[in-house]
Design brief:
The chain has helices at 3-64, 77-87, 108-115. The chain has 117 residues and is mainly α. Residues 53-74 are annotated as: Disordered.
Amino acid sequence: MDKKAIFTQVSQLEERLGELHHELRGLKEQLAYLIEENHSLHIENENLRDRLEAQEEAQEEGKNDKASSKKKPFVGEGYDNLARLYQEGFHVCNTHYGSIRSDGDDCLFCLSFLHQK
Ligand SMILES: [Zn+2]
C-alpha cells in the first residue's frame, strides 16, 4: 500500500468521523428537545388531571345540592388546554380520558364535556 493510498484512506475516515459527529450532535439536540417536551407534557397531563378531578368533584356537589344547581363556569387556561387537547385528537371526557380519538370521530362525551362550560 503506497503512502498516497493510506493518506487518502485516513482523509476519508476523517470525513466520515466528521459526518458521524455532526449526526450525533443532531440526535443529541433532538433528544434534548424530546426530554423537554416530555417534561412539559407530563406537567400538562398532571394539571389536566387535577382539573378533571376538581370538575368531577364540582359535579358531585352539584348533584347533592339541587338548590345551587347552577354550575360554576368552567373557563380559563384549563378549558383552553382541554379544548386544544381535543383538537389535537385526544379524549378529554371521563370515559376515555387521555386516549387517542380515532380519525375524525367526534366523541359525544368529549363534546358535551367541553360545551358544559
Ligand atoms: Zn371522549
